[in-house]
Amino acid sequence: MxxxxxxxxxxxxxxxxxxxxxxxxxxxxxxxxxxxNVAIALSRxxxxxxxxxxxxxxxxxxxxxxxIRGEGVDTTGVVFDHSRPTGVFFKEQRPGKEPNILYxxxxxxxxxxxxxxxPEAQIKEAKFLHLTGITPALSESCKETVHHxxxxxxxxxxxxxxxxxxxxxxxxxxEAREALVPIVAQxxxxxxxxxxxxxxxxxxxxxDIASFFLExxxxxxxxxxxxxxxYFASEAEEAHVPGxxxxxxxxxxxxGDGFAAGFLSGLLRNWPVKEAVALGNKVGAYALSVAGDAExxxxxxxxxxxxxxxxxxx
Length: 314
Ligand code: KDG
Fold this sequence. Notes:
314 residues, alpha/beta, UDP-N-acetylmuramoyl-L-alanine:D-glutamate ligase, eight-stranded mixed sheet, four-stranded mixed sheet, globular, binds 2-keto-3-deoxygluconate, Ribo/fructo_kinase, PfkB_dom, Carboh/pur_kinase_PfkB_CS, ATP-binding, kinase
């Protein structure tokens, strides 16, 4: 196993037309979840990846497991819960603005994840454990599960990569800071966006955000800067890596998860970190072209072909 990840995935309903949901009668059904987005993108890039969660023992739970499994992700760790439902969410389309996200996930099966749901053997044999700051926001038991997974990873020399993915619809900035700063301190790689990095650290510049996390125990920080690319820093080096040009943005959601997958893919291929960050930018950019979260992520063949085409043009 190259990467193991876990977290909540929900059924995502995207209205076919824009405007307030009360006037919308047709929806597309797909799935959305930051960690499964990363797992799907990594699988398309050719890596062995496992995703786990607690899902409702219902039609939506089966749909989510089948969808993710169909992308070649190992889902054998998934636990089905007979008494709690699978969460759902909606993306209300607002022309010219980011979609409005509406969650129906309180008390969901995933929010009842506990440390015993975690496939310890899969973590022990993975090269990376990927986590996001959404999971500890779901409940106390989910927060404990994240701490437990980190401790297994650390005892077994597995690198931990953490994306804060701050969701202020799930908790306040204050609560998020209190819970996430101690988690971040135990993780090797941290991937904040500029805004969430500012909220967590109280700093505004990418360099200062990165220094905060490096001084707090992380060994590598990438601050994602949207169309401007990313800034990364470690003890050994730091640099800005330009963004990947994008012609049309349909929906930015899922880009950060694409970044995490591309970056991890570069690390797993032992690329220099600057190139791994550039691959992160590229995979993230692919997500912008579609309304769903994961549909836009590229296959490895596409990445190779584009690289070859770019070299011919040069
Ligand atoms: O990163 C994309 C996710 O935010 C989306 O898929 C839904 O996981 C989700 C969440 O909790 O917001």
